[in-house]
Amino acid sequence: MCTIRVNYSSIEKMEAISDKKVSVPWIKIRYVQMVLLFFLLGMSYAIRTILSVAIVAMVTTDTSINSDIPTFDWKNTGVILSAFYWSYALLQFFAGPIAHTFSPKWILTIAMVVNSGTSLLIPILAVHLGSGGVIACRVIQGIAQGFIIPLVHTMLGRWAPTEERSWINTTVYSGCSFGTIISMPITGYISASWLGWPFSFYLFGILGMVWCVFWIIFSADRPATHKSISLEERRYIEESLGQAEEENIQVNEKVPWRAILTSLPYWAVVVGAIGESWGSTFLITEIPTYLSKTTDIDIEKNGLYSSAPYVVAAVLTVIYWPLADYLIHSNVTSRKTSRRIFHGLGAFLPALALVWLAYEKNRWGIAALLIVAISLNGAMFCGYNVNHIDISPRFSGVLFGISNGIGQTLAILAPLLVQFIVYDETDKDLWRTMFVIAAIIYAATAVVFITYLSAERQWWDAISRPSKGDFQSELQSHRDQELINQ
Protein backbone atom coordinates (compact mmCIF):
# COMPACT_ATOMS: atom_id res chain seq x y z
CA MET A 1 0.00 0.00 0.00
CA CYS A 2 1.19 3.53 -0.62
CA THR A 3 2.36 5.48 2.42
CA ILE A 4 0.10 8.39 3.36
CA ARG A 5 1.16 10.94 5.96
CA VAL A 6 -1.73 12.26 7.99
CA ASN A 7 -1.39 15.60 9.77
CA TYR A 8 -3.90 15.93 12.57
CA SER A 9 -2.74 19.25 14.03
CA SER A 10 -5.24 21.18 11.93
CA ILE A 11 -7.96 18.73 12.87
CA GLU A 12 -7.25 19.19 16.58
CA LYS A 13 -7.38 22.98 16.24
CA MET A 14 -10.62 22.79 14.35
CA GLU A 15 -12.12 20.49 16.98
CA ALA A 16 -11.02 22.80 19.77
CA ILE A 17 -12.69 25.89 18.32
CA SER A 18 -15.86 24.15 17.15
CA ASP A 19 -18.41 24.25 19.97
CA LYS A 20 -20.93 22.51 17.73
CA LYS A 21 -19.00 19.25 17.87
CA VAL A 22 -20.48 16.83 20.38
CA SER A 23 -18.38 13.83 21.35
CA VAL A 24 -20.48 10.77 22.14
CA PRO A 25 -17.81 8.07 22.63
CA TRP A 26 -20.24 5.26 23.45
CA ILE A 27 -21.96 5.66 20.07
CA LYS A 28 -19.86 4.75 17.06
CA ILE A 29 -21.06 7.14 14.40
CA ARG A 30 -19.81 4.88 11.60
CA TYR A 31 -22.22 2.23 12.85
CA VAL A 32 -25.06 4.75 12.83
CA GLN A 33 -24.26 5.40 9.16
CA MET A 34 -24.16 1.64 8.59
CA VAL A 35 -27.64 1.18 10.08
CA LEU A 36 -29.05 4.08 8.05
CA LEU A 37 -27.57 2.68 4.83
CA PHE A 38 -28.90 -0.78 5.72
CA PHE A 39 -32.45 0.55 5.98
CA LEU A 40 -31.96 2.66 2.86
CA LEU A 41 -31.25 -0.48 0.84
CA GLY A 42 -34.01 -2.31 2.71
CA MET A 43 -36.67 0.26 1.83
CA SER A 44 -35.43 0.72 -1.74
CA TYR A 45 -35.47 -3.03 -2.40
CA ALA A 46 -38.86 -3.38 -0.74
CA ILE A 47 -40.28 -0.74 -3.07
CA ARG A 48 -38.48 -2.32 -6.01
CA THR A 49 -39.86 -5.82 -5.41
CA ILE A 50 -43.48 -5.02 -4.47
CA LEU A 51 -44.53 -5.30 -8.10
CA SER A 52 -43.03 -8.78 -8.57
CA VAL A 53 -45.71 -10.19 -6.23
CA ALA A 54 -48.42 -7.55 -6.69
CA ILE A 55 -48.47 -8.05 -10.47
CA VAL A 56 -49.89 -11.54 -9.91
CA ALA A 57 -52.85 -10.02 -8.02
CA MET A 58 -53.16 -7.11 -10.44
CA VAL A 59 -53.77 -9.37 -13.45
CA THR A 60 -55.63 -12.20 -11.67
CA THR A 61 -59.23 -12.00 -10.51
CA ASP A 62 -60.40 -13.25 -7.11
CA THR A 63 -57.03 -12.93 -5.35
CA SER A 64 -58.48 -10.49 -2.79
CA ILE A 65 -61.53 -11.08 -0.62
CA ASN A 66 -62.53 -7.50 -1.46
CA SER A 67 -64.34 -7.53 -4.81
CA ASP A 68 -63.83 -3.77 -5.20
CA ILE A 69 -60.05 -4.14 -5.64
CA PRO A 70 -59.30 -3.41 -9.32
CA THR A 71 -57.70 -6.00 -11.62
CA PHE A 72 -56.46 -5.60 -15.17
CA ASP A 73 -56.23 -7.62 -18.37
CA TRP A 74 -52.60 -6.81 -19.15
CA LYS A 75 -50.55 -8.98 -21.51
CA ASN A 76 -47.33 -6.96 -21.26
CA THR A 77 -46.26 -7.99 -17.74
CA GLY A 78 -42.70 -8.66 -18.94
CA VAL A 79 -42.41 -5.07 -20.15
CA ILE A 80 -43.94 -3.76 -16.92
CA LEU A 81 -41.49 -5.75 -14.77
CA SER A 82 -38.47 -4.72 -16.85
CA ALA A 83 -39.39 -1.00 -17.07
CA PHE A 84 -37.66 -0.24 -13.76
CA TYR A 85 -34.34 -1.50 -15.11
CA TRP A 86 -34.39 0.60 -18.30
CA SER A 87 -33.61 3.83 -16.48
CA TYR A 88 -31.98 2.17 -13.47
CA ALA A 89 -29.21 0.74 -15.63
CA LEU A 90 -28.60 4.02 -17.46
CA LEU A 91 -28.30 6.08 -14.26
CA GLN A 92 -25.57 3.81 -12.89
CA PHE A 93 -23.06 5.32 -15.32
CA PHE A 94 -23.66 8.87 -14.08
CA ALA A 95 -24.40 8.34 -10.39
CA GLY A 96 -20.81 7.62 -9.33
CA PRO A 97 -19.25 10.74 -10.90
CA ILE A 98 -22.13 12.86 -9.58
CA ALA A 99 -21.51 11.51 -6.07
CA HIS A 100 -17.83 12.43 -6.41
CA THR A 101 -18.85 16.02 -7.21
CA PHE A 102 -21.93 16.69 -5.07
CA SER A 103 -23.21 15.72 -1.63
CA PRO A 104 -24.16 12.00 -1.43
CA LYS A 105 -26.34 12.76 1.60
CA TRP A 106 -28.68 15.09 -0.25
CA ILE A 107 -28.70 13.15 -3.50
CA LEU A 108 -29.79 10.06 -1.56
CA THR A 109 -32.47 12.11 0.21
CA ILE A 110 -33.95 13.34 -3.07
CA ALA A 111 -33.69 9.87 -4.61
CA MET A 112 -35.61 8.25 -1.77
CA VAL A 113 -38.31 10.94 -1.72
CA VAL A 114 -38.91 10.39 -5.45
CA ASN A 115 -38.75 6.61 -5.04
CA SER A 116 -41.30 6.62 -2.22
CA GLY A 117 -43.55 9.20 -3.87
CA THR A 118 -43.91 7.18 -7.06
CA SER A 119 -44.75 4.09 -5.00
CA LEU A 120 -47.70 6.04 -3.58
CA LEU A 121 -48.79 6.98 -7.12
CA ILE A 122 -48.69 3.52 -8.76
CA PRO A 123 -52.17 2.32 -7.60
CA ILE A 124 -53.77 5.61 -8.68
CA LEU A 125 -52.12 5.72 -12.11
CA ALA A 126 -52.77 2.02 -12.72
CA VAL A 127 -56.51 2.70 -12.52
CA HIS A 128 -56.54 5.95 -14.51
CA LEU A 129 -53.73 5.38 -17.05
CA GLY A 130 -53.47 1.60 -17.21
CA SER A 131 -50.18 -0.25 -17.66
CA GLY A 132 -48.63 2.88 -19.20
CA GLY A 133 -49.01 4.71 -15.89
CA VAL A 134 -47.34 1.87 -13.99
CA ILE A 135 -44.51 1.73 -16.54
CA ALA A 136 -43.96 5.49 -16.21
CA CYS A 137 -43.75 5.22 -12.41
CA ARG A 138 -41.34 2.31 -12.63
CA VAL A 139 -39.09 4.21 -15.04
CA ILE A 140 -39.01 7.15 -12.60
CA GLN A 141 -38.26 4.75 -9.73
CA GLY A 142 -35.41 3.34 -11.80
CA ILE A 143 -33.98 6.84 -12.18
CA ALA A 144 -34.22 7.47 -8.44
CA GLN A 145 -32.82 4.10 -7.40
CA GLY A 146 -30.08 4.39 -10.01
CA PHE A 147 -28.32 6.76 -7.63
CA ILE A 148 -28.70 4.67 -4.51
CA ILE A 149 -26.22 1.79 -4.73
CA PRO A 150 -23.33 3.77 -6.31
CA LEU A 151 -23.75 6.42 -3.60
CA VAL A 152 -23.94 3.77 -0.90
CA HIS A 153 -20.59 2.52 -2.18
CA THR A 154 -19.25 6.08 -2.05
CA MET A 155 -20.41 6.40 1.56
CA LEU A 156 -18.83 3.06 2.49
CA GLY A 157 -15.57 4.17 0.91
CA ARG A 158 -15.61 7.18 3.26
CA TRP A 159 -16.94 5.59 6.45
CA ALA A 160 -15.80 1.93 6.58
CA PRO A 161 -12.25 1.50 7.96
CA THR A 162 -10.09 -1.01 6.11
CA GLU A 163 -10.12 -3.40 9.08
CA GLU A 164 -13.94 -3.49 9.13
CA ARG A 165 -14.59 -3.24 5.40
CA SER A 166 -15.87 -6.77 4.75
CA TRP A 167 -18.39 -6.91 7.57
CA ILE A 168 -19.67 -3.34 7.26
CA ASN A 169 -20.04 -3.72 3.49
CA THR A 170 -21.83 -7.06 3.80
CA THR A 171 -24.06 -5.87 6.66
CA VAL A 172 -25.16 -2.82 4.71
CA TYR A 173 -25.87 -4.83 1.57
CA SER A 174 -27.82 -7.41 3.55
CA GLY A 175 -30.41 -4.65 3.60
CA CYS A 176 -31.24 -5.75 0.04
CA SER A 177 -32.27 -9.16 1.36
CA PHE A 178 -34.08 -7.55 4.29
CA GLY A 179 -36.18 -5.41 1.97
CA THR A 180 -37.12 -8.41 -0.15
CA ILE A 181 -37.87 -10.49 2.96
CA ILE A 182 -40.42 -8.00 4.27
CA SER A 183 -41.79 -6.90 0.90
CA MET A 184 -42.75 -10.19 -0.73
CA PRO A 185 -44.69 -11.91 2.10
CA ILE A 186 -46.31 -8.67 3.25
CA THR A 187 -47.37 -7.86 -0.31
CA GLY A 188 -48.72 -11.40 -0.75
CA TYR A 189 -50.67 -11.20 2.51
CA ILE A 190 -52.04 -7.72 1.80
CA SER A 191 -52.98 -8.66 -1.78
CA ALA A 192 -55.08 -11.58 -0.51
CA SER A 193 -56.69 -9.49 2.24
CA TRP A 194 -59.55 -6.97 2.16
CA LEU A 195 -56.98 -4.16 1.75
CA GLY A 196 -55.85 -5.53 -1.61
CA TRP A 197 -52.66 -5.01 -3.60
CA PRO A 198 -52.81 -1.14 -3.66
CA PHE A 199 -52.16 -0.90 0.08
CA SER A 200 -48.74 -2.55 -0.25
CA PHE A 201 -47.56 0.35 -2.44
CA TYR A 202 -48.93 2.87 0.07
CA LEU A 203 -47.33 1.11 3.05
CA PHE A 204 -43.79 0.99 1.72
CA GLY A 205 -44.05 4.45 0.17
CA ILE A 206 -44.81 5.89 3.62
CA LEU A 207 -42.00 3.89 5.27
CA GLY A 208 -39.57 5.27 2.68
CA MET A 209 -40.57 8.82 3.59
CA VAL A 210 -40.02 8.05 7.29
CA TRP A 211 -36.49 6.84 6.51
CA CYS A 212 -35.74 10.18 4.84
CA VAL A 213 -36.43 12.03 8.10
CA PHE A 214 -33.93 9.92 10.07
CA TRP A 215 -31.37 10.19 7.27
CA ILE A 216 -31.49 13.98 7.16
CA ILE A 217 -31.02 14.21 10.94
CA PHE A 218 -28.30 11.63 11.56
CA SER A 219 -26.20 11.26 8.38
CA ALA A 220 -23.18 13.09 6.98
CA ASP A 221 -21.15 12.89 3.78
CA ARG A 222 -17.93 11.97 5.58
CA PRO A 223 -16.48 11.79 9.13
CA ALA A 224 -15.03 15.30 8.87
CA THR A 225 -18.49 16.84 8.43
CA HIS A 226 -20.43 14.90 11.08
CA LYS A 227 -21.33 17.10 14.05
CA SER A 228 -21.49 14.33 16.66
CA ILE A 229 -18.46 12.18 15.87
CA SER A 230 -15.71 11.94 18.47
CA LEU A 231 -12.19 13.04 17.54
CA GLU A 232 -10.94 9.55 18.39
CA GLU A 233 -13.32 7.83 15.98
CA ARG A 234 -12.71 10.40 13.27
CA ARG A 235 -8.96 9.90 13.56
CA TYR A 236 -9.37 6.13 13.42
CA ILE A 237 -11.43 6.23 10.21
CA GLU A 238 -9.33 8.86 8.46
CA GLU A 239 -6.04 7.23 9.38
CA SER A 240 -7.30 3.86 8.15
CA LEU A 241 -8.50 5.28 4.83
CA GLY A 242 -5.99 8.11 4.39
CA GLN A 243 -8.73 10.73 4.16
CA ALA A 244 -7.08 13.58 6.05
CA GLU A 245 -5.06 14.71 3.05
CA GLU A 246 -8.19 14.72 0.91
CA GLU A 247 -9.51 17.77 2.76
CA ASN A 248 -6.98 19.86 0.82
CA ILE A 249 -8.13 18.38 -2.50
CA GLN A 250 -11.10 19.79 -4.36
CA VAL A 251 -14.19 17.61 -4.11
CA ASN A 252 -14.52 17.51 -7.90
CA GLU A 253 -10.98 16.23 -8.47
CA LYS A 254 -10.60 14.69 -11.90
CA VAL A 255 -11.49 11.01 -12.08
CA PRO A 256 -8.69 8.98 -13.78
CA TRP A 257 -11.01 7.60 -16.46
CA ARG A 258 -8.33 6.28 -18.79
CA ALA A 259 -6.58 4.34 -16.03
CA ILE A 260 -9.88 2.94 -14.75
CA LEU A 261 -11.16 1.86 -18.16
CA THR A 262 -7.88 0.14 -19.04
CA SER A 263 -7.57 -1.68 -15.69
CA LEU A 264 -7.87 -5.46 -16.09
CA PRO A 265 -8.71 -6.04 -12.38
CA TYR A 266 -11.56 -3.56 -12.71
CA TRP A 267 -12.97 -5.27 -15.80
CA ALA A 268 -12.87 -8.53 -13.86
CA VAL A 269 -15.13 -6.82 -11.30
CA VAL A 270 -17.43 -5.67 -14.11
CA VAL A 271 -17.81 -9.24 -15.39
CA GLY A 272 -18.57 -10.43 -11.85
CA ALA A 273 -21.24 -7.73 -11.57
CA ILE A 274 -22.84 -8.86 -14.84
CA GLY A 275 -23.31 -12.38 -13.50
CA GLU A 276 -24.76 -11.25 -10.18
CA SER A 277 -27.06 -8.66 -11.76
CA TRP A 278 -28.49 -11.07 -14.32
CA GLY A 279 -29.09 -13.83 -11.78
CA SER A 280 -30.61 -11.68 -9.06
CA THR A 281 -32.83 -9.74 -11.49
CA PHE A 282 -34.15 -12.95 -13.04
CA LEU A 283 -34.89 -14.51 -9.66
CA ILE A 284 -36.50 -11.42 -8.10
CA THR A 285 -38.75 -10.55 -11.04
CA GLU A 286 -39.74 -13.97 -12.36
CA ILE A 287 -39.89 -16.47 -9.47
CA PRO A 288 -43.31 -15.26 -8.19
CA THR A 289 -44.76 -15.70 -11.70
CA TYR A 290 -43.08 -19.10 -12.08
CA LEU A 291 -44.58 -20.31 -8.80
CA SER A 292 -47.99 -18.89 -9.63
CA LYS A 293 -48.23 -20.41 -13.11
CA THR A 294 -46.55 -23.81 -12.68
CA THR A 295 -47.69 -24.77 -9.16
CA ASP A 296 -50.92 -24.59 -7.18
CA ILE A 297 -49.47 -22.08 -4.69
CA ASP A 298 -51.88 -19.19 -3.99
CA ILE A 299 -50.91 -15.50 -3.86
CA GLU A 300 -50.45 -15.40 -0.07
CA LYS A 301 -48.16 -18.44 0.02
CA ASN A 302 -46.44 -17.22 -3.16
CA GLY A 303 -45.04 -14.25 -1.26
CA LEU A 304 -43.80 -16.54 1.51
CA TYR A 305 -42.15 -18.98 -0.90
CA SER A 306 -40.55 -16.14 -2.85
CA SER A 307 -39.19 -14.42 0.26
CA ALA A 308 -38.04 -17.51 2.22
CA PRO A 309 -34.68 -17.70 0.39
CA TYR A 310 -33.97 -14.09 1.33
CA VAL A 311 -34.57 -14.90 5.00
CA VAL A 312 -31.90 -17.60 4.77
CA ALA A 313 -29.67 -15.19 2.84
CA ALA A 314 -29.93 -12.63 5.64
CA VAL A 315 -28.98 -15.28 8.22
CA LEU A 316 -26.04 -16.47 6.15
CA THR A 317 -24.83 -12.89 5.83
CA VAL A 318 -24.09 -13.00 9.56
CA ILE A 319 -21.70 -15.87 8.74
CA TYR A 320 -20.18 -14.56 5.50
CA TRP A 321 -18.65 -11.32 6.70
CA PRO A 322 -16.98 -12.45 9.95
CA LEU A 323 -15.69 -15.55 8.19
CA ALA A 324 -14.25 -13.47 5.35
CA ASP A 325 -12.57 -11.10 7.81
CA TYR A 326 -11.30 -14.00 9.94
CA LEU A 327 -9.71 -15.74 6.95
CA ILE A 328 -7.92 -12.54 5.97
CA HIS A 329 -6.83 -11.18 9.35
CA SER A 330 -5.77 -14.61 10.68
CA ASN A 331 -3.61 -15.11 7.57
CA VAL A 332 -5.53 -18.28 6.71
CA THR A 333 -6.00 -16.86 3.21
CA SER A 334 -4.90 -13.75 1.41
CA ARG A 335 -7.47 -11.06 0.68
CA LYS A 336 -7.43 -12.13 -2.97
CA THR A 337 -8.07 -15.79 -2.14
CA SER A 338 -10.91 -14.83 0.20
CA ARG A 339 -12.58 -12.83 -2.58
CA ARG A 340 -12.23 -15.84 -4.89
CA ILE A 341 -13.69 -18.29 -2.37
CA PHE A 342 -16.77 -16.23 -1.57
CA HIS A 343 -17.50 -15.20 -5.14
CA GLY A 344 -17.18 -18.81 -6.27
CA LEU A 345 -19.47 -19.96 -3.46
CA GLY A 346 -22.05 -17.36 -4.48
CA ALA A 347 -21.95 -18.26 -8.18
CA PHE A 348 -21.17 -21.95 -8.77
CA LEU A 349 -23.52 -23.47 -6.18
CA PRO A 350 -26.50 -21.32 -7.24
CA ALA A 351 -25.74 -22.28 -10.85
CA LEU A 352 -25.97 -25.97 -9.95
CA ALA A 353 -29.17 -25.33 -7.99
CA LEU A 354 -30.78 -23.60 -10.98
CA VAL A 355 -29.94 -26.51 -13.30
CA TRP A 356 -31.46 -28.92 -10.77
CA LEU A 357 -34.46 -26.62 -10.33
CA ALA A 358 -35.11 -26.83 -14.06
CA TYR A 359 -35.98 -30.52 -13.63
CA GLU A 360 -37.43 -30.56 -10.10
CA LYS A 361 -41.18 -31.29 -9.82
CA ASN A 362 -41.75 -31.59 -6.07
CA ARG A 363 -43.01 -28.41 -4.37
CA TRP A 364 -40.69 -28.77 -1.38
CA GLY A 365 -37.77 -29.58 -3.66
CA ILE A 366 -38.45 -26.39 -5.60
CA ALA A 367 -38.51 -24.40 -2.35
CA ALA A 368 -35.22 -25.94 -1.17
CA LEU A 369 -33.46 -25.25 -4.48
CA LEU A 370 -34.70 -21.66 -4.54
CA ILE A 371 -33.26 -21.22 -1.05
CA VAL A 372 -29.87 -22.51 -2.24
CA ALA A 373 -29.89 -20.44 -5.44
CA ILE A 374 -30.84 -17.16 -3.78
CA SER A 375 -29.32 -17.40 -0.29
CA LEU A 376 -25.83 -18.44 -1.42
CA ASN A 377 -25.83 -15.65 -3.99
CA GLY A 378 -25.22 -13.27 -1.09
CA ALA A 379 -21.68 -14.63 -0.69
CA MET A 380 -20.74 -12.60 -3.77
CA PHE A 381 -20.94 -9.45 -1.65
CA CYS A 382 -17.67 -10.66 -0.09
CA GLY A 383 -16.37 -11.24 -3.61
CA TYR A 384 -16.85 -8.85 -6.51
CA ASN A 385 -18.89 -6.30 -4.53
CA VAL A 386 -16.38 -5.40 -1.83
CA ASN A 387 -13.58 -5.71 -4.41
CA HIS A 388 -14.58 -2.27 -5.75
CA ILE A 389 -13.37 -0.78 -2.46
CA ASP A 390 -10.29 -3.04 -2.37
CA ILE A 391 -8.93 -1.67 -5.63
CA SER A 392 -10.13 1.92 -5.24
CA PRO A 393 -11.55 3.22 -1.93
CA ARG A 394 -11.52 6.79 -3.27
CA PHE A 395 -13.40 6.13 -6.50
CA SER A 396 -15.42 3.09 -5.42
CA GLY A 397 -18.72 4.86 -6.09
CA VAL A 398 -17.63 5.72 -9.62
CA LEU A 399 -16.43 2.17 -10.23
CA PHE A 400 -19.59 0.64 -8.84
CA GLY A 401 -21.75 2.93 -10.93
CA ILE A 402 -20.08 1.73 -14.12
CA SER A 403 -20.01 -1.97 -13.24
CA ASN A 404 -23.55 -2.00 -11.90
CA GLY A 405 -24.71 0.03 -14.89
CA ILE A 406 -23.30 -2.51 -17.33
CA GLY A 407 -24.65 -5.39 -15.25
CA GLN A 408 -28.12 -3.90 -14.95
CA THR A 409 -28.21 -2.96 -18.64
CA LEU A 410 -27.73 -6.60 -19.56
CA ALA A 411 -30.06 -7.70 -16.74
CA ILE A 412 -32.89 -5.81 -18.45
CA LEU A 413 -32.89 -8.68 -20.93
CA ALA A 414 -33.87 -11.21 -18.24
CA PRO A 415 -37.61 -10.40 -17.95
CA LEU A 416 -37.80 -9.55 -21.66
CA LEU A 417 -36.18 -12.87 -22.55
CA VAL A 418 -38.66 -14.65 -20.29
CA GLN A 419 -41.55 -12.99 -22.14
CA PHE A 420 -40.00 -14.10 -25.46
CA ILE A 421 -39.01 -17.67 -24.53
CA VAL A 422 -41.73 -18.53 -22.00
CA TYR A 423 -44.66 -17.69 -24.28
CA ASP A 424 -46.76 -20.17 -22.28
CA GLU A 425 -46.16 -19.42 -18.59
CA THR A 426 -47.64 -22.77 -17.54
CA ASP A 427 -45.09 -24.77 -19.58
CA LYS A 428 -42.28 -25.98 -17.30
CA ASP A 429 -40.10 -26.97 -20.27
CA LEU A 430 -39.93 -23.33 -21.38
CA TRP A 431 -39.02 -22.22 -17.86
CA ARG A 432 -36.30 -24.89 -17.86
CA THR A 433 -34.52 -23.08 -20.68
CA MET A 434 -34.42 -19.86 -18.67
CA PHE A 435 -33.02 -21.58 -15.57
CA VAL A 436 -30.21 -23.16 -17.60
CA ILE A 437 -29.36 -19.81 -19.24
CA ALA A 438 -29.13 -18.14 -15.81
CA ALA A 439 -26.90 -20.96 -14.52
CA ILE A 440 -24.49 -20.63 -17.47
CA ILE A 441 -24.21 -16.86 -16.98
CA TYR A 442 -23.54 -17.30 -13.25
CA ALA A 443 -20.73 -19.82 -13.83
CA ALA A 444 -19.05 -18.20 -16.84
CA THR A 445 -18.81 -14.73 -15.30
CA ALA A 446 -17.48 -16.18 -12.04
CA VAL A 447 -14.65 -17.94 -13.88
CA VAL A 448 -13.57 -14.64 -15.45
CA PHE A 449 -13.71 -12.70 -12.16
CA ILE A 450 -11.82 -15.35 -10.19
CA THR A 451 -9.12 -15.53 -12.85
CA TYR A 452 -8.35 -11.83 -13.25
CA LEU A 453 -9.26 -10.12 -9.95
CA SER A 454 -6.86 -8.13 -7.77
CA ALA A 455 -7.29 -7.29 -4.09
CA GLU A 456 -4.64 -4.54 -4.05
CA ARG A 457 -5.31 -0.81 -4.18
CA GLN A 458 -4.56 0.25 -7.74
CA TRP A 459 -1.88 2.80 -8.55
CA TRP A 460 -4.37 5.29 -10.04
CA ASP A 461 -6.29 5.50 -6.74
CA ALA A 462 -3.37 7.04 -4.79
CA ILE A 463 -3.95 10.63 -3.67
CA SER A 464 -0.65 11.85 -5.14
CA ARG A 465 -1.34 9.72 -8.23
CA PRO A 466 2.22 8.37 -8.86
CA SER A 467 3.08 6.52 -12.03
CA LYS A 468 2.14 2.86 -12.13
CA GLY A 469 5.79 1.81 -11.93
CA ASP A 470 6.52 4.00 -8.91
CA PHE A 471 3.43 2.76 -7.12
CA GLN A 472 4.29 -0.90 -7.73
CA SER A 473 7.85 -0.33 -6.49
CA GLU A 474 6.59 1.31 -3.31
CA LEU A 475 4.06 -1.47 -2.82
CA GLN A 476 6.72 -4.17 -3.20
CA SER A 477 9.01 -2.32 -0.79
CA HIS A 478 6.20 -2.19 1.76
CA ARG A 479 5.60 -5.95 1.40
CA ASP A 480 9.33 -6.71 1.76
CA GLN A 481 9.46 -4.65 4.95
CA GLU A 482 6.48 -6.56 6.34
CA LEU A 483 8.27 -9.86 5.68
CA ILE A 484 11.39 -8.57 7.47
CA ASN A 485 9.31 -7.48 10.46
CA GLN A 486 7.73 -10.93 10.65
Automatic annotation (TrEMBL):
Q: Where in the cell is it found?
A: Membrane
- Topological relation to the membrane, as annotated: Multi-pass membrane protein
Q: What are the residue boundaries of the Major facilitator superfamily (MFS) profile domain, all occurrences included?
A: 30-457
Cite the entry's keywords alphabetically: Ion transport, Membrane, Sodium, Sodium transport, Symport, Transmembrane, Transmembrane helix, Transport
- Primary residence: membrane
GO biological process entries: monoatomic anion transport; sodium ion transport
Q: By its UniProt entry, which Pfam families does this protein fall under?
A: MFS_1
Q: Name one GO cellular component term.
A: membrane
Q: Which InterPro entries match?
A: MFS (IPR011701), MFS_dom (IPR020846), MFS_Na/Anion_cotransporter (IPR050382), MFS_trans_sf (IPR036259)
As for what it does, the entry says:
May be an inorganic phosphate cotransporter.
| Protein's recorded name | Putative inorganic phosphate cotransporter
The taxonomy runs: Eukaryota, Metazoa, Ecdysozoa, Arthropoda, Hexapoda
